[in-house]
Amino acid sequence: MAQLNIAEAKAHFSEIVRRAARGEEIVIAKDNHPLVRLVPVQGNEGDRVPGSAKHHIVSVSPDFAGTLEDFKDYM
């Protein structure tokens, strides 16, 4: 667990966010008193794989790319 003061956190914000997103717990303090803890959002593990949904869409309506009835007046 890393502890940084507010000024350090402000100066290195992008790197701190990257570190937290990888799972490191970051504590931001003021006058050596912890104020907040920066941790990754649950469910954001980065396990998405391009193409992993292939063959999950079985059919698409023939007019899928067509104009919706509600918007025909605007065309």
Automatic annotation (TrEMBL):
Pfam families xref list: PhdYeFM_antitox
Membrane-spanning residues: none
Coiled-coil portions: none
Record-linked InterPro entries: Antitoxin_Phd/YefM (IPR006442), phD-YefM_TA_antitoxins (IPR051416), YefM-like_sf (IPR036165)
Function as written in the Swiss-Prot or TrEMBL entry: Antitoxin component of a type II toxin-antitoxin (TA) system.
PANTHER family recorded: ANTITOXIN VAPB49-RELATED-RELATED, PREVENT-HOST-DEATH FAMILY PROTEIN
The family this protein is said to belong to: Belongs to the phD/YefM antitoxin family.
The protein's name in its UniProt record: Antitoxin
Organism of derivation: Leptospirillum ferrodiazotrophum
